[in-house]
Amino acid sequence: MNYKIIFLLLLTTWCRAGAPDRDDGYRLWLKYDLIKDASQRATYARSAQFIALSGNTPVLKTAAEELQAGLQGLLGKAVPIVTSAGNKTGGIILTTRADLPTRNDEGYQITGKQNITVSGRTDAGVLYGAFALLRQLQTGQPISGLSLISNPKIQLRMLNHWDNTDGSIERGYAGSSLWNWYELPERIDPRYRDYARANASIGINGTVVNNVNASSRFLTAEYLEKVAALANVFRPYGIKIYLSVYFPAPKTIGGLKTADPLDPEVNKWWADKATEIYKLIPDFGGFLVKANSEGQPGPQDYNRTHADGANMLAKALAPHKGIVIWRAFVYKADGKADRFKAAYEEFQPLDGQFDKNVIVQVKNGPIDFQPREPFSPIFGVMPKTPLGMEFQLTQEYLGFATHLVYEAPIFKECLDSDTYVTGKNSTVAKVIDGSLHAYPLTAIAGVANTGSDRNWTGHPLAQANWYAFGRLAWDHSLSSEALANEWVKMTLTTEPASVKTITDMLLKSRDIYVNYNTPMGLSRPWTGAHFAPEPWQNRSSRPDWTAIYYHRADSLGLGFDRTAKGSNALAQYRPEVQQQWNNPETCPLPYLLWFHHVPWTKKLSTGRTLWDELCTRFYTGADSVGWLQKQWAQVKKDVNPETFDNVAGRLATQQKEAIWWRDAWVLYLQEFSRQPIPAPFKKPERSLDEVKQLVEIYKMR
Ligand code: GCV
Description:
There is one protein chain. The protein is α/β, with parallel strands linked by helices. It has helices at 3-18, 38-46, 58-75, 123-138, 190-201, 221-234, 249-252, 264-280, 306-317, 342-347, 408-415, 428-432, 463-474, 480-491, 496-517, 548-551, 575-582, 592-595, 610-634, 641-673, 688-700; strands at residues 51-53, 81-82, 92-96, 108-112, 116-120, 147-150, 156-160, 206-208, 240-245, 286-289, 323-327, 358-363, 387-392, 443-447, 557-558, 598-599. The longest helix has 33 residues, at 641-673. The structure holds 4-O-methyl-alpha-D-glucopyranuronic acid (GCV).
């Protein structure tokens, strides 16, 4: 071999040793790669010489095995599981203790002296503690001398999958469904277990496996067996399974003539169905229901109320300790009404009428998962009904899987909003965690962004949204920044400069997106793909499925007047909240067009007119995607090549599409404003007709 070849071989080996490992993103934040710093490894290893586990229940075994696998990877050495620590020190003891000073059953305590003790009142508490301990190592924190207690603030922390029997996912952008219904119950895809591991590691304890636009097929004996097989995989990870149900199932699969919730035969059908389910799945969680919403049937078809429908199902589940999660996402096809007000109008009068095992699940905003929405007014007006939160992780309105949008700031913005329901500091978070109204049940759900893509979420950085949701569901006081930082370290790199750069990208990404997509309180829940810009769309089967219904652009100005002069939706909020938003002079700019129809030439607090401010935001938003690209280029050396290229490609697409969004809005709105594009911004290179053509071509895909 000549010297040149030997040199090249050496160089390749050296480069590979220094470069991050190849990684396809499958391992999520549970990578457990060897900690690079040998002395750090040795310090950890001294406190992790064995894992002592006295119990033998499935969840405890999971805790020990997860800890063992994690330590093996991080420390590069086998850590034995023993049944008792005896006199030994330097190990980790996993134990349940009924008298633990945690606030609730799923909380954990980690203390460290000669041994590190991870304890919970229940097995699940120990499992969450084991993952928390691993997180300490993954993020470079100390593990000895620890003294920490952590409790979930919300009881039911769930994912909602909008997955169908044919493997498709409504609003899913990461491949097809994770659940192979045709293969179940016989074949158990190993991925089901990895799904459960990921969820348990962030504290998620429930999952609804099928779409809220539900098929009655899920309640047939054939499908219940499949669902039971999934439940068996999830159980050792402390995760309960729930089903979305089709309200008229007693008719469609039960052979009854009605689905009237007050009909005794219908009641019996559901009670029998519940018994059948619990025989197969003894720890079944309950039902999620979308009724009288977007064409889905419900109790109102029989002149009954949402409470009648929910309570009927609640009675069927109560003997088995199951719960009903009834969605408040409702609005009628009334062009004259304001969709913003619909859920409040239907649900507020029912406060206090729901059975004890019912939770009403409310989307964070009054419309539909828009890039920026004010909090739903319902959170401030139903003290006698447990209200659960519904966030969306899948990026229906957030650029699917090609745009980078870190969602923790969206979640936090809503959770930290003050409803003033019992005076100042009555945040949405305190409503849903039950601390304000002593709700007996508390819940939070995220519409999942997972799919069959190898990296689970399509966009590699969208994993951060799943992660942050779970962690916030556990503790809503955590900051977006802390969670981003944690996720980056566990998933992408621990190199400080790159951690900082990526964290910064994540934190700014939502505002960048809002700027080029829907600045200052514009919204765009019109019908169709929910992706292509189409502010001109004015025809649809219902008026509230057009674009013009929402932005209300005309020759005078832009925005939806929701003050007393307009739809008066603001009246649904407490006076203190109304005060913040009622006056266009003082309404914060991010919410301005949600509540006001503002003249094009109106001077805003920024010193610019509405038109100039809009243009500034559209243009700087689109330009900022270039900034994201530059930031990403800087972390190349510290991120594995596959993930790096994947994100770089998506950012390039995002850049192209951001300009597309900017051009569509600016050119369309200019027809009303009749104002020039302000300097230093340049007129779009294409015409409005050309953008419209582009959108038509997109829609043909
Ligand atoms: C599951 C929006 C989405 C629908 C979704 C609905 C809902 O309208 O576009 O796909 O249906 O919300 O949350 O029920």
